[in-house]
Amino acid sequence: MKKTILSGSTVTGDLTLGNYIGAINNWTKLQDEYDCLYFLADLHALTVQQDPKVLKERTYSFLAQYVALGLDPQKNIIFAQSHVHQHTELSWILTCLTPMGNLNRMTQFKEKSEKHSKNINAGLFTYPTLMAADILLYQADKVPVGEDQKQHIELCRDLVTYFSNRYGEGILKMPEPFIAKMGARIMSLQDPSKKMSKSDENEKNFIAVIEDAKKIEKKIKSATTDSDTVIKYDLQNKPGLANLLTIYSVLSGKSYETLEKDYEGKMYGHLKVDLANLVVETLAPVKAKYDDLMKNRDYLDQLFKIGADKASQRAQVTLDKVYTAVGLVPRQ
Ligand code: TYM
Predict the structure, then answer these.
(1) 9, burial (CB in 10 Å: exposed 0-12, middle 13-18, buried 19+)
(2) Are 294 and 61 in contact (CB under 8 A)?
(3) Which of 199, 222, 243, 271 has its CA 20 to 30 A from that of 84?
């Protein structure tokens, strides 16, 4: 029996190099060995105010981005969260088990409520319980994510313990976070003290995976570094350069040491030019495939249907067990 993997991305902005390096690049590596489900978290997107037309368009765009980045719809179950109603149903059961104090501790809630101070809605607060439902519905063994999602997965693990203590063991499986050693936190290009985020207002801070080559080059060339000249991985003193070296290392497969040797006696400018070429080379086929997929809406709709059918079937098995365990009368 293959182990089950589940992960997803919230449908906001466009997927960035951070999402790719921290998460999706790893998802694609797991698709042969594991039973994988990858979804588009469109319901999570509603915790921030969305233009309905843009959200709809973006959900198609994200599906095309997932596939263009290498997620094979034959090997993985790829689906939209809102197409599988069981997510919100399990989320409610879990919400009723979640102490307010646990949610209060979530750093992402604190950050997001500062950023969206005029729209601090209850959904933003209970977001992690929906995320727990996403994971637990499929009895996922591992959840491949970037560093920033670790706290949410810890909360999910706490919820499994609370649920098992109250309703019995073995109904919900305890998931493990799966965080890569390299690239789990790609930083903003202009401000390397904060993470690269797809919802950043300043588009110089991130590179979208479907970005034009010219823009990619420009953004990497203007990335913040320090005034020193030695190319050396030093996270403490050279965070901007360290970030570029991490991107370079993950995309090229070369270690920091090899890169340091390659660039001995060279300037930051040399490194930036080479890195820009590498990123452009990596993303050019993604953009081409993406453009193709976006022309074929019927195919994308077909993928949505196949994914939703498969995911719903699996989700219902868990939801039935949970409903029975908590004492809800089965529907006749
Ligand atoms: P989201 O959409 O913010 O990000 C998707 C994935 O990309 C990772 N990531 C990063 N990795 C490295 N460096 C970065 N700068 C960077 N930015 C983002 C994230 O850690 C994530 O793995 N709440 C989730 C979506 C979600 C989910 C789930 C994930 C909803 N339900 C269940 C796993 C399981 C989110 O907003 O990810």
Answers:
(1) buried
(2) yes
(3) 199
| Those residues with Cβ within 8 angstroms of residue 62's Cβ, 6 or more apart along the chain or in another chain | 9, 11, 15, 40
Of 29, 53, 110, 112, the catalytic one is 112
CA distance linking residue 7 with residue 300, whole number of Å? 20
Judged by DSSP in three states, 223 sits in coil
Ligand 1: residue of 9, 46, 50, 126 to mutate (most ligand atoms within 8 A of CB) is 9
Distance CA 101, CA 99 (A): 5
110 included as an active-site residue: no
What's the pTM? 0.97
Q: Give the model confidence (pLDDT) of 75-108 as tens digits.
A: 999 999 999 999 999 999 999 999 999 999 999 9
Q: What is the pLDDT of residues 236-269, one digit of tens each?
A: 999 999 999 999 999 999 999 999 999 999 999 9
DSSP 117: T
Q: 280 — alpha (psi -120 to 50), left (phi > 0) or beta? A: alpha
